[in-house]
Automatic annotation (TrEMBL):
Descriptive protein name: Aspartate-semialdehyde dehydrogenase
Catalytic activity reported: L-aspartate 4-semialdehyde + phosphate + NADP(+) = 4-phospho-L-aspartate + NADPH + H(+)
Encoding gene, per UniProt annotation: asd
GO process annotations (BP): 'de novo' L-methionine biosynthetic process; diaminopimelate biosynthetic process; isoleucine biosynthetic process; lysine biosynthetic process via diaminopimelate; threonine biosynthetic process
SUPFAM superfamilies in the record: Glyceraldehyde-3-phosphate dehydrogenase-like, C-terminal domain, NAD(P)-binding Rossmann-fold domains
rRNA-binding found in the keyword field: no
InterPro entries for this protein: Asp_semialdehyde_DH, Asp_semialdehyde_DH_beta, NAD(P)-bd_dom_sf, Semialdehyde_DH_NAD-bd, Semialdhyde_DH_dimer_dom
GO terms, molecular function: aspartate-semialdehyde dehydrogenase activity; NAD binding; NADP binding; protein dimerization activity
Function: Catalyzes the NADPH-dependent formation of L-aspartate-semialdehyde (L-ASA) by the reductive dephosphorylation of L-aspartyl-4-phosphate.
Annotated source species: Kaistella antarctica
E.C. numbers: 1.2.1.11
């Protein structure tokens, strides 16, 4: 497999390379692509050196697969060019997610919809992925009516400069890079991404639209508030789910414990519940604090945590690639 990784030096790009190596994906020729200032530099993959090249050089080499993690503008310009030379693109930006003719994939849920004709495949938003991993089995069993999700999102979701800002502020360095409109250390910002329609942020809009497409179900309502918090290990979500049908709490926990890629951590007597510190570096989605909403019927509260750079981005993309390879779709 000849594979290009677009944005190979970025936070997600680096994790994609790490996950490809960890999962022993059959890479025979790696084509790392990054910005002009990185061209000619070397990266190490599986013990071998590979030179970072330009986008055009990668395009000329016609890879079997291109994994994009370089922002929406880059994806909109170059993903169709790669598709035109026969390359299958897995794109980590928001550029293609809600396009009607593009598939939005979480492999545990809907990989079966993929075909050889799908040359640009969208990787969902990080917060969306961990949410739908839990919603999916519950929706099948109890029929979701309404979801209220509040997120507590890691600075790693904004990128390296955001991590640098947090670390600078922890050290008291007031002259470092500023990504957020306010300090993030000892703070919580009720703004992830820019504000858009009706005073929702783009992140909140993604959370309110992408799950319906992934689950293939637009019959439920969903609303979101996304908050940036000064942590690095992963994203957390407080989720309230109202169902059409009654549920049994033990059955809910059993369903979730059997769901692929989901781990139940729910032993409050021993203070066991999901946390970003625990999820960092792991590929699973962790769920806990599972309890009935005592304020209204047929409603559940739970807490979901996942490493946003891995299952929320890189691992999910690599899992898509694995499905394509295993099913001879590339």
């Amino acid at each position: 497999m000849k594979i290009a990784v677009i944005g190979a030096t970025g936070m997600v790009g680096q994790i994609i390379l790490k996950v490809l190596e960890e999962r022993n994906f059959p890479v025979t020729d790696l084509i790392p692509v990054a910005s002009e200032k990185s061209i000619g530099k070397k990266i190490i993959f599986k013990g071998d050196e590979f030179e970072i090249v330009s986008m055009q050089t990668a395009l000329d080499r016609k890879p079997d697969l291109a994994m994009f993690s370089a922002g929406g503008t880059t994806s909109l310009e170059f993903a169709p060019k790669f598709a035109a030379v026969g390359t299958t693109v897995i794109d980590n930006s928001s550029a293609w997610r809600m396009e009607a003719d593009k598939k939005l994939i979480v492999p545990e849920i809907n990989a079966q919809v993929l075909t050889k004709e799908d040359k640009i495949i969208a990787n969902p938003n990080c917060s969306t992925i961990q949410l739908v991993m839990v919603l999916h089995p519950l929706n099948i069993k109890y029929d979701v009516k309404r979801v209220i999700v509040s997120t507590y999102q890691s600075v790693t979701g904004t990128g390296k400069n955001a991590v640098d800002q947090l670390n600078d502020e922890v050290l008291g360095n007031k002259d470092g890079v500023k990504v957020y409109p306010y300090e993030i250390f000892k703070n919580a910002l009720p703004q992830c991404d820019v504000f858009a329609e009706d005073d929702y942020t783009k992140e909140e809009i993604k959370l309110m639209t992408e799950p319906k497409k992934i689950l293939g179900d637009d019959t439920f309502n969903i609303t979101a508030t996304a908050v940036r918090v000064p942590v690095q290990g992963g994203h957390s979500e407080s989720v309230n789910i109202e169902f059409e049908n009654e549920f049994d709490l033990d059955e809910v926990k059993d369903l979730l414990s059997k769901a692929p890629g989901v781990v139940v951590l729910d032993d409050v007597k021993n203070n066991i519940y999901p946390m970003p510190l625990y999820s960092e570096g792991k590929d699973e989605v962790f769920v806990g604090r599972i309890r009935r909403d005592i304020s209204q019927p047929k409603t559940l509260n739970l807490w979901i945590v996942a490493d946003n750079l891995r299952k929320g981005a890189a691992t999910n993309a690599v899992q898509i690639a694995e499905y394509l390879y295993q099913n001879k779709l590339i």
